[in-house]
């Protein structure tokens, strides 16, 4: 009596399946939920605190005009989003962990063995991360802005004021982009401490160092640095020494594309 061997056809690797796998891995990280909660809490908490301090000085600005959207240092939108810098670092660190932790544990070998073409893994990580983090970041920025303006009261801004919606939504975009930058650096450097240190330097130290080292004639180049470009996009009104909002976004996205492109090249051409 003969038996028929039943063989299961191989499962075809598709971008959708790889993305689903990365979705599971993203939520399996113990740091994922805690990190996002911390980032949202910092963004909302510091924003509301700054708004409450701003309330104490809403009578006039330095020019004697009532405070409102785009009124420089007394801009109520910037006050309610004062926690962005801290949230940016936290989301960036989460992006680093999402990528670099696989190199630390050796799990990247299993991931690339299952996906021989390699690059779908990177695209899936970026897709999952961007979808989740933008949702969380936008919810947090909307709460911080709405709550902050309620605290400020009559001197506050509204969603319908010029530049306000762009500033709030743009802040969520920049926070998401900072995390994607972390993914790119994690893939390039393949070390969590090195990638987080580089991320911190690029986002927060580079501008200060450049201001000290560049001669006066090169001061206009500062507006093209990542932090200044992203700030131009999230500013309610354009500053005289800054890029236009959409030019700032283009420059910031250019940096992201360069880092992700370099990460993709190394992932494709170098051994794990």
UniProtKB/TrEMBL annotation:
Superkingdom of source: Bacteria
Keyword terms, alphabetized: Membrane, Transmembrane, Transmembrane helix
Transmembrane segments annotated in the record for this chain: 33-56, 76-100, 121-145, 165-189, 196-214, 246-267
PANTHER family registered for this protein in UniProt: INTEGRAL MEMBRANE PROTEIN-RELATED, MEMBRANE PROTEIN
Protein name: ABC transporter permease
Organism: Virgisporangium aurantiacum
């Amino acid at each position: 009596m003969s038996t028929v061997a039943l063989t299961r056809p191989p499962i075809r690797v598709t971008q959708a399946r790889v993305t689903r796998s990365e979705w599971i891995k993203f939520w399996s990280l113990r740091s994922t939920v805690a990190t996002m909660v911390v980032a949202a809490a910092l963004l909302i908490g510091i924003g509301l605190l700054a708004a409450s301090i701003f309330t104490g000085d809403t009578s006039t600005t330095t020019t004697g005009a009532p405070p409102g959207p785009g009124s420089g240092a007394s801009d109520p939108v910037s006050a309610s989003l004062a926690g962005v810098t801290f949230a940016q670092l936290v989301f960036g660190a989460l992006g680093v962990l999402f990528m670099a932790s696989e190199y630390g544990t050796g799990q990247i070998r299993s991931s690339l063995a299952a996906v021989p073409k390699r690059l779908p893994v990177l695209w899936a990580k970026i897709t999952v991360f961007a979808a989740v983090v933008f949702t969380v970041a936008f919810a947090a920025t909307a709460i911080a802005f709405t709550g902050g303006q309620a605290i400020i009261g009559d001197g506050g801004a509204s969603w319908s004021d010029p530049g306000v919606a762009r500033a709030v939504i743009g802040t969520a975009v920049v926070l998401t982009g900072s995390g994607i930058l972390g993914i790119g650096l994690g893939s390039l450097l393949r070390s969590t401490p090195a990638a987080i240190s580089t991320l911190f330097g690029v986002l927060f130290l580079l501008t200060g160092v450049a201001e000290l080292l560049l001669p006066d004639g090169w001061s206009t180049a500062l507006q093209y640095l990542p932090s200044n470009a992203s700030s131009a996009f999230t500013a309610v009104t354009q500053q005289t020494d800054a890029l236009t909002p959409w030019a700032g976004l283009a420059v910031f996205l250019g940096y992201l594309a360069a880092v992700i492109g370099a990460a993709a090249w190394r992932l494709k051409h170098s051994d794990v």
